[in-house]
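User: Can you recover a sequence for this backbone? Please restate the input before giving your answer.

Assistant: Of course. Working from this structure:
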C-alpha cells in the first residue's frame, strides 16, 4: 500500500461523469492538490476508514483505492459534491442483503463527508433539498421570479379542473427525476402536453404525484449556469425545431441553435438570490423567455450538466468551478 500527501480539494463524483473530467483538467492546469473520489468504488474497489478518537476532538478519514493508493482525506478544505452513485454488488447476494449493504455504504460515505469542516459546492443536504421541485418553485416565486401556474397532485379531479381552467394548455412533468429503469430498457420522461383523455385514468394518476403547469408561449429557452456569483447564460432556440418546442432535451438534433446571451440585470440578480436562498454555490437554472418578453422560472438542477454548453459556446465554466475550489481551499488554509 502506498500513501499520498493530503489533498486540499475533494471532487465527489462517479467514474462515468464526463462533466467532472473538465474540472479535473482545470484543477491540474492550476497545479491544485486534489483527489477524485468515485462513489461507486465503495465497497468493491475501495476500502475506507473513518476514525474518531476517544481523546481527540477531530476525526480522520482514509480512502484506499483499487491500486492500493491510500489517501488521507482529513485535510480536505473544499469539496465539489457532484454525484453519488451506488455500485452493483454481487448477484449472489439476495436483494434484502444487497439493499442493506448499499444503504450502509451510502450512509457511511455521506457521514464521512458531512463530518468535514469544509467549503462546499454544494452541501449535500442543500443539494438534496434543492432537488425537491415544490420547494424550489416556492422559493423561486418568493424571491420574485415569474413562475408558471403550477399544480402538483395525484388527484385526477384536481388535475382535470386545472386542465379545464387553463383551456387545455397544460404540460406535465416528473416531480423529481424523469427516468425509469425497466427490464426492457431505460426510459426518459420529458415535459409533455396533456390532453383531457390523458387525465381519465384515475388509477394511474393516483399512483404518483405529477407536476402540471400552464403552457407558456416560448420565444426560446435559457440555460443559466451559476458558479458562486458568476452567471453564464445560454439561449437555446428551442422553437426552431418541432421536436424541441415543448422540451428542448427531447431532440437529438445537433442543429438546435445555441448562443450566448446577456440576462437583464434583475434576472441575473434573481438567479444569484435563488442559489443563496437554497444554500447552493452551483446551480443550472432553466428559464423561459415568452413571446411578450417575460422571463419564467422552470426549475433548478443543483448538479446540472453544462459541459455541452462550454464546448459549444466557449464558456469557461470548468475554470470557474476550479477557481472557486482553489480559492475556498486557500481561504480555509489561511484561516486555520
Amino acid at each position: 500500500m502506498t500513501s499520498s500527501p493530503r489533498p486540499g480539494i475533494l471532487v465527489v463524483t462517479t467514474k462515468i461523469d464526463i462533466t467532472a473530467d473538465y474540472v479535473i483538467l482545470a484543477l491540474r492546469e492550476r497545479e491544485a492538490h486534489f483527489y477524485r473520489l468515485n462513489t461507486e468504488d465503495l465497497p468493491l474497489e475501495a476500502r475506507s476508514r473513518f476514525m474518531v478518537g476517544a481523546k481527540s476532538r477531530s476525526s480522520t478519514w482514509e480512502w484506499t483505492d483499487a491500486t492500493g493508493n491510500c489517501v488521507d482525506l482529513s485535510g480536505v478544505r473544499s469539496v465539489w459534491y457532484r454525484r453519488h452513485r451506488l455500485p452493483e454488488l454481487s448477484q449472489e447476494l439476495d436483494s434484502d442483503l444487497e439493499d442493506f449493504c448499499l444503504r450502509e455504504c451510502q450512509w457511511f460515505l455521506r457521514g464521512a463527508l458531512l463530518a468535514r469542516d469544509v467549503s462546499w459546492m454544494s452541501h449535500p443536504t442543500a443539494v438534496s433539498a434543492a432537488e425537491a421541485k415544490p420547494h424550489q418553485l416556492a422559493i423561486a416565486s418568493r424571491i420574485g421570479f415569474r413562475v408558471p401556474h403550477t399544480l402538483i397532485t395525484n388527484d385526477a379531479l384536481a388535475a382535470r379542473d386545472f386542465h379545464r381552467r387553463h383551456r387545455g394548455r397544460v404540460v406535465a412533468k416528473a416531480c423529481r427525476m424523469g427516468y425509469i429503469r425497466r427490464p426492457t430498457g431505460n426510459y426518459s420522461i420529458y415535459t409533455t402536453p396533456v390532453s383531457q383523455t390523458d387525465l381519465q385514468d384515475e388509477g394511474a394518476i393516483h399512483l404518483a404525484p405529477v407536476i402540471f403547469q400552464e403552457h407558456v408561449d416560448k420565444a426560446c429557452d435559457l440555460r443559466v449556469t451559476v458558479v458562486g456569483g458568476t452567471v453564464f447564460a445560454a439561449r437555446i432556440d428551442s422553437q426552431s425545431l418541432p421536436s424541441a418546442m415543448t422540451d428542448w432535451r427531447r431532440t437529438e438534433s445537433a442543429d438546435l441553435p445555441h448562443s450566448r446571451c446577456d440576462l437583464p440585470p434583475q434576472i441575473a440578480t434573481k438567479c444569484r438570490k435563488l442559489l443563496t436562498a437554497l444554500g447552493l454555490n452551483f446551480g443550472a437554472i432553466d428559464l423561459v423567455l415568452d413571446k411578450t418578453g417575460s422571463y419564467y422560472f422552470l426549475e433548478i438542477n443543483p448538479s446540472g450538466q453544462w459541459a455541452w454548453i462550454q464546448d459549444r459556446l466557449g464558456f469557461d465554466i470548468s475554470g470557474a468551478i476550479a477557481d472557486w475550489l482553489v480559492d475556498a481551499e486557500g481561504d480555509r488554509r489561511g484561516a486555520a
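That completes the design. The first strand starts at residue 2 and ends at 4.
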